[in-house]
Amino acid sequence: xxxxxxxxxxSVAAITAATLYCAQVVRATPANPGFTTTxxxxxxxxxxxxxxxxxxxxxxxxxxxxxGWFDFQMTKGHSDLYVVNNTWQAVNFDGNQGIAxxxxxxxxxxxxxxxxxxTLTEYHKNCVPHVHNTGDTFVDAGGGEVHLIRNEGxxxxxxxxxxxxxxxxxxxNRRVDxxxxxxxxNIN
Length: 188
Fold this sequence. Notes:
Shape: globular
Structural class: mainly beta
CATH superfamily of the largest domain: Jelly Rolls
Largest sheet: 5 strands, antiparallel
Oligomer: single chain
Helix content: 10-25%
Order of helices and strands: HEEEEEEEEEEEEE
Strand order of the largest sheet: 1-4-12-7-10
């Protein structure tokens, strides 16, 4: 009798977990048609590496007033490198198209992003807008940090992103669609 109770409890737990997982997949917010990604480099695989570089103040280029420069990168396991060109269509105010958006997503590794055209608004789970203009740079730390980037303006926008993620033979883990945070359900 006790064994049947344990089996029943485990079965109920497994069904509940599967239901919750499927519910999240259904509610995930993939990119909308106004957003496109073009791969400039797709999943070039690197062996594990350790890089340490620095430059003291006197060794920096003329005009650089930093007190020094330091770079440390280390990977354990193989990594895939991506370089992508992301584009967002402008808002069409005649009502034929909504706001171009990446949809809510995360990345398993960091992204270094440069805005090459237009103005973009980035949201994280706190729903606070962060505006990025042409020439701006920003870092998406990845590692489960959920965010959405959209073009709320009247001109097209674009970025170049360099991303380093864990090696995936299928080259399918660069981006993971996720549900909108409950605090930002009206932002998509």
